[in-house]
Design goal:
Length: about 180
């Protein structure tokens, strides 16, 4: 195309189809940019959730079993899986070989699936530990009360004995005079 033909092509009004196509392309570019931004925010939020999980799970110092289906690809094939310390997924593959993957390496949707399954189990463990701790605390308070009462009884008995001995010594000394 010579320069004059190019100029004429630019000056020609776009066809209706061309206008629609260009509008669609701009819309697609805009939506794609928004999608990329949303997915970046989604990943950031998922990683913050994983960090929070680490703190909560460290507080109970216990692993929590989860269904492998919650893990998504490529871990869905595991026979069994747990969320261990530092939010690491530990499992056994079909051959019985151990597999470990940080939860943060999963897709945000799979992290949410794990959290959905993990949360009620974490709550159960926390409630069980709380119940056990409350029972121990109650017993300790009772034992401490018994020790205090026993110590007080011993102190009273020693005091009474000393007073009785002192009284006997005073009486003896008075009787001798």
């Amino acid at each position: 195309m010579n320069p004059e033909q190019e100029s004429q092509a630019k000056e020609q009004p776009e066809s209706k189809e061309g206008t629609v196509l260009l509008r669609e392309m701009r819309d697609i570019q805009s939506e794609a940019a928004q999608l990329a931004e949303i997915e970046e925010l989604e990943t950031e939020q998922a990683l913050k959730i994983v960090e929070s999980m680490k703190v909560l799970q460290a507080g109970i110092d216990s692993a929590i079993s989860i269904k492998p289906q919650a893990l998504g690809e490529p871990l869905i094939h595991l026979k069994q899986a747990i969320v261990g310390a530092d939010a690491v997924i530990i499992g056994l593959d079909n051959e019985g070989k151990p597999v470990s993957t940080p939860l943060s390496a999963l897709k945000p949707a799979d992290i949410l699936n794990v959290v959905n399954e993990w949360t009620p189990k974490l709550r159960e463990k926390i409630l069980a530990r709380k119940k056990e701790s409350e029972a121990r605390l109650y017993l300790m308070e009772k034992v401490l009360r018994e020790f205090k009462e026993g110590s007080a009884a011993i102190r009273d008995s020693r005091r009474q004995f000393r007073e009785s001995v002192e009284s006997d010594l005073v009486r003896d000394s008075l009787d001798k005079e």
